[in-house]
Amino acid sequence: MRFENKNDNFYTIDVKRFYIPVVFVATCPKCGEEVRRDLNDWYLSYPPVGKPFVLDLACGECSYEWGEEIRLLISLEICSKEEES
Ligand SMILES: [Zn+2]
Fold this sequence. Notes:
This protein has 85 residues and is mainly β. It has strands at residues 11-12, 23-27, 34-38, 48-49, 53-58, 65-70. 0% of the residues lie in helices and 31% in strands. Bound molecules: zinc ion. Zinc ion is lined by residues 28, 30-31, 33, 59, 61-62, 64.
């Protein structure tokens, strides 16, 4: 059993509201406050896979806005028992 990759380049997930149960935690470069962006609440829209893109962030303390580059990676693994050969 195996997976075959059909695309050598990046692709885009064709989903307007792509929720991930992950919280991005950063430090505001202006005031040093901890900034959290819950990706299960503030979804990604049509995110690219395997290619860096900018995640917009805003500080709740000083209203400073900036972006951090992130990359979405998807992995698959086979969980069925491998056939004995
Ligand atoms: Zn700030």
